[in-house]
Amino acid sequence: MFGQYKHTLDAKGRLIVPSKLREELGELFYISKAPDVCLTVYTAAEWQRVVDHFNSLPITASRSLRYFMGNVWQIEPDKQGRFLLPESLRTFAGIDQDVIFLGLGGRAEIWAAERYEAEEPEHLTPEAIEQALKELGF
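Now predict its structure.
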């Protein structure tokens, strides 16, 4: 899953999954809140890995993840690729109307377009790209 796709919520709060991401996300995927004040979209297989890891943690560690796990939504898009983006997720990510989907390999993110477009330029400088590649071991 790669690329950047701009979409708009419809009047009912529904989003359309970008056609280039539909097959990779599948008929069932999961959306959670993310630390960068955006939403993370997991394929069913990737989400199962998260759940398996969560279930392997001692109860003391899993308590701290209670609120994260309790705010994940299972999504089944309709035949047109539309799905209702829950209001609690829209509020958290500051999404009013325009969104940007980002394909990030095994998962995706959904951002409020204004927030992403405001932050993106500082991360696309040659220095920022060089630093990111170094952090990845390149």
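The chain has one domain: 2-112.
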